[in-house]
Amino acid sequence: MNLRLYIIILLSAALGCMQAPAQSGSSAYSFLDIPMSTRIYGLGGINISLIDDDISTIDQNPALLGPEMSGMMSLSYMKYVAGSNFAGLRYAHSAGERAAWSAAVQYFGYGSMKETDETGSIIGDFSPKDAVFMGAYSHDITDRLRGGINLKMAYSSYAEYSALAIGVDLGINYYDPDRDMSLSAVVSNLGGQVKKFNERYDRMPIDVRLGWSQSFGTLPLRFSVTAWNLTKWKLPYLEYTDGTTSSEGQVKDKFMSNLMRHLVFGVDLIASPNWYIGLGYNYKVRTDMLADQRSMLSGFSLSGGIRVKAFGVGLAFAQRTTGASTFMLNLSCSLSEII
What we know:
globular, two-stranded antiparallel sheet, mainly beta, Porin
């Protein structure tokens, strides 16, 4: 695709998102923001610019996919809060010397819940679940610039209700290997429902994101900053001084508060290609929690991994609220090195 044409498409989609009045906070399909990668989860949960030998990062930005990932496979599992269990599988393959494609599936199970009727009487149990099927394609526009597109179909089943939505992510990445600097832009979740739960159509969480990752000289650290939720500036939240919701909360809506809730910070130790350690901080995650539910770790996340020949293992940990820890596991392999 012509470079100018691709940038025009990306910018047009971004401007359309910013002008759409619909972006006032629908929480439907928020599971689409849960990453498949322990590396990403350990860097704050959102990172669109990380250049690494890890195909599970592609769900963040389809432009991170490339022919160098041909034959790679990744399996992910997350033990989430309230008995939820998530899993994902992804495979990638080259399409010539300058392009690649990838297929993936994610499953989100939320455990067993009591089902009630309109009077509140319990009539049984049900197990709500979501699933996402994805297909991505990327192409090297120049030696340093790559564009990608990710088509996804999201299916939800809650008791006797079900819904289906189709969305598209558009991404672009610029990588300068001489400075190990990566810059990315993504427009995510363009699309909508094709089958609704009942009488109302739920909106997909359309977003515009910008990202930067870079290491400096011989320092074995790579720094990342990701800006997200850019379809709106104000992201106010309530802070309860007594730690409960019994009193009237104080609205936090100042400039620095809004700015910080748009940013996710990450740093990873890259001293060796065979192992890594990552640390992230997501201020929005921390401030979304009530004061009495937060721990000193709320908003922080940690990950680590090792690679031995064609196989890799990654682990990530975060504690969003007191007593509610989440763990994530990645298993990866390069089939091209095995076969």
